[in-house]
Automatic annotation (TrEMBL):
Residues 64-91 have a biased composition (Low complexity). It comes from Periophthalmus magnuspinnatus. Keywords: Annexin, Calcium, Calcium/phospholipid-binding, Repeat. Coiled coil: none annotated. One of its GO terms (cellular component) is nucleus. This is Annexin. A pair of annexin repeats may form one binding site for calcium and phospholipid. PANTHER family: ANNEXIN. Belongs to the annexin family. InterPro entries: Annexin, Annexin_repeat, Annexin_repeat_CS, Annexin_sf. Residues 23-161 are annotated as: Disordered. One of its GO terms (biological process) is cytokinetic process.
Length: 493
């Protein structure tokens, strides 16, 4: 079958191949078919040395499209020759091309929207069901025109659904650059990696440097399979072998690197709850900084590993409004939409003011309901409106109105939502400041943030304390423990 714009189809001439069959079609080809497409003039010329055109081609159809040089004639009300007319205020023409403007370099994409929701520099799209301005109506869809005839009156094509764009404040950007310090190692093979680990532990002594170089240059998804690969290859438990070879904080750091992120978080939450006393700061740190999906996975692993739900463990180890705060956070039901309704943000700011500064006593439940349920972009807008309203930052109002664990817990939630990297920089500084080091906190943050925002944490640390995180870790730790932590840090600033 021949199509418009292409040379007429012809059967292959008998040239050294099979002889013509007796009783076959005359001329070596198929008989003409009624109602087929004519060969379109202006198509590709026959290539030199190509097959000769077939005699007795297809006759002009009675119900097809009429011939016209250069293809089909324009439909009534359809698109003119040459494509779309330039749209007023639309995309600027690209040198050497007629398409969309060039995108930013891959991996560094930013988007800023004006308060009305339209991207800066771009036209606002049409309302649903309305034609694009300055564009002529297109031809009607093919299925409604039997026999290939154009629809009388040239009805326009139905519009495709509008593309949804996340609406953010103009000072908020979508930044898709990778901000972790640990990346996938190209060509990593678990079977080769466990061989390195086995050699490092085999015989007299341990080659700690080999362990540091391997684990410090593998991402979490490349480290976790090593546990199964080691048992498959050597019939031994990798974690047990490492425990027998390593000691102290270096051992704890290595074992943490071989857990999945959610498995490690569940283990840290368990450690913070069990025994005498509770590490409230650890509970708030993990539950206020993880996504809904991560919290759901932590809940699943916690119940599977320890035979008790995380909520029950928290309820049995805490009390009062602090317990309510933690239980709310461990549900993993925070709104995660990026859109911000400024009028609703103002209402929430007024509710917080009425529940605290503008009231005798404090309604902690109102703070809990807003801080644990609203999306992070929305809460940042609420905090801004709150400060505009009463001239005081929200965390300072919390400190004036509350006390004890509920105060520290809600302040931590606010700080994490305002600037997550700055919050973790402060947590790291407190872990290393003064006499002694809170190594569990240091290990947890360095491991859990090394593939998320460690580069941002380093920047915030330098800005807040005038000293690089790398330098502080170097002066506060030692030995193989320090070497592996510096690998996770990723460099000096």
């Amino acid at each position: 079958m021949s199509y418009p714009g292409y040379p007429p189809a012809g059967g292959y001439p008998p040239a050294g191949g099979y002889p013509p069959q007796g009783g076959g079609y005359p001329g070596g080809g198929y008989p003409p078919q009624a109602g087929s497409y004519p060969p379109a003039p202006g198509g590709y010329p026959p290539a030199p040395g190509a097959y000769p055109p077939q005699t007795g081609g297809y006759p002009p159809p009675g119900a097809g499209y009429p011939q016209a040089p250069g293809g089909y004639p324009p439909q009534a009300g359809g698109y003119p020759s040459g494509g779309y007319p330039p749209q007023a205020g639309g995309y600027p023409p690209q040198p050497g091309a007629g398409g969309y403007p060039a995108m930013p370099p891959a991996g560094d994409v930013t988007l800023c929207l004006q308060p009305g929701g339209a991207p800066q520099g771009y036209p606002t799209g049409p309302a649903p069901g309305q034609p694009m301005p300055n564009y002529p109506a297109g031809p009607a869809p093919g299925p409604s025109h039997p026999g290939g005839q154009p629809h009388p009156g040239g009805q326009p094509h139905p519009h495709a659904p509008a593309v949804s764009v996340r609406k953010l404040h103009c000072n908020r950007f979508i930044n898709r650059r990778y901000r972790g310090s640990i990346k996938d190692f190209p060509g990593a093979d678990p079977l080769r990696d466990v061989e390195v680990l086995r050699k490092a532990m085999k015989g007299f002594g341990t080659d700690e440097n080999a362990i540091i170089e391997l684990l410090g240059n593998r991402s979490s998804k490349q480290r976790v399979p090593l546990v199964a690969a080691y048992k498959t290859t050597y019939g031994k438990d990798l974690l047990r072998d490492l425990k027998s070879e390593l000691t102290g904080n270096f051992e704890n750091l290595v074992l943490a690197l071989l857990m999945s992120p959610s498995q490690f978080d569940a283990a840290e939450l368990r450690e913070a709850i069990k025994g005498a006393g509770t590490d409230e700061a650890c509970l708030i740190e993990i539950l206020s900084s993880r996504t809904n999906a991560e919290i759901h996975e932590i809940n699943r692993i916690y119940k599977s590993e320890y035979g008790k739900s995380l909520e029950d463990s928290i309820s049995g180890d805490t009390s009062g409004h602090f317990r309510r705060l933690l239980v709310s956070l461990c549900q993993g039901n925070r709104d995660e939409r990026e859109t911000v309704d400024v009028s609703l943000a103002k209402q929430d700011a007024q509710k917080l003011y009425a529940a605290g500064e503008n009231k005798v006593g404090t309604d902690e439940s109102q703070f809990n309901a807003i801080l644990c349920a609203r999306s992070k972009p929305h809460l940042r807008a609420v905090f801004h409106e709150y400060q505009q309203m009463c001239g005081r930052e929200i965390e300072k109002s919390i400190c004036r109105e509350m006390s004890g664990n509920v105060e520290s817990g809600m302040v931590a939630v606010v700080k994490c939502i305002k600037n997550t990297a700055a919050y973790f920089a402060e947590r790291l500084h407190k872990a290393m400041a003064g006499a002694g080091t809170k190594d569990r906190t240091l290990i947890r943050i360095m491991v859990s943030r090394s593939e998320i925002d460690m580069l941002d944490i380093r920047q915030e640390y330098l800005k807040a304390y005038g000293k690089s995180l790398y330098t502080h870790i170097s002066g506060d730790t030692s030995g193989d423990y320090k070497k592996l932590l510096l690998k996770l840090c990723g460099g000096n600033d």
